[in-house]
Amino acid sequence: MTPVVRLRGVGREYQGVVALRDVSLTVERGELVGIVGPSGSGKSTMLNLIGTLDRPTHGEVRIDGHAVRELSDRALSALRASVIGFVFQQFHLAIGVSTVDNVADGLLYAGVGLRQRRRRAAEVLEAVGLGHRLTHRPHELSGGERQRVAIARAVVGRPALLLADEPTGNLDSTSGEAVLGLLRSLNDAGTTVLVITHDQEVAATLPRRVDVRDGRVVRDA
Question: Which CATH number applies to 5-220: 3.30.160.340, 3.30.1490.20, 3.40.50.300, 3.40.50.150?
C-alpha cells in the first residue's frame, strides 16, 4: 500500500538559509506520529512541505503517492482539498459564523451543495461531542470546544491525512487532553494523524515520535 507521506533526501532553503537538511521520512496509512522539536528546529518547514504549502529545494516529497514537485499549483490545491486536513493552534474560525457553517466551509471546494455541507458538518460535530453547539458562534465556545470545531472542519471532507500544528498550545491541560483523545479516536477510525509539537508531554503520549533538531531528523522511534 502506498504510504501517505514519503520524504526522500528533502532539503529546503530560504534566501540561502538552510531550514531543512536531507530529511527522509515515511508515514504509513493509519499511523499516529509526533513531529517534535523546539522553535526553529525545522518542524514547521516539514509541516509546510508535507501539507504541500511549500515545495522542497531538493529531494522528493510524495503525498498519497503524488510527487509534489511535479504538480501544478491547481493540482496541488486539489490534492490538499481531497487528501489533507489542517488543524492550527489559533483555530482560525470565522467570527460571527455559526459552528455548523464554520465546519461546512471545510467542504467549500469539494463541489458539495450547501444543504449537504451542513448535514455532513452536523454529523461530524455530533461525533466530536458538539451536536448541541451547532448554532453557537466561536465567542460562545470554550477554547477546547473551538479546537474541536477546528478538528471537525479539518476532517469533514474525510481526508487521508490530518496535520495538527500545536493543537494543544492554547489550551489548558484538561482541554488539551480531550483534544488529544479526539485525535486518537480519529486515528483509531483510520485517519493518519501527524501532530507537530514542541511539548514533550504531548510527544510522550504518541506511539511514534520523530525528533527534529537544526533542520535534521535526529531520532525516529
Answer: 3.40.50.300
Type of residue found at 91 = F
Please write the tens of the pLDDT for every residue from 187-217. Answer: 999 999 999 999 999 999 999 999 999 999 9
Distance CA 116, CA 104 (A): 9
Closest CA to 85 of 214, 215, 191, 169: 191
If DSSP codes are grouped into helix, strand and coil, which group holds residue 197? strand
Annotate 108-122 with b (16+ C-beta within 10 A) or e (fewer): eeeebeeeebbebbb
Length of the chain: 221
What is the end-to-end Cα distance of the chain in Å, rounded? 22
For 83, the 3-state DSSP assignment is helix
Strand partners, 192: 161
pTM: 0.92
Any bridge partners for residue 194, and if so which? 33, 163
Query: Residue 196 and residue 188: Cα distance in Å, rounded?
Result: 19
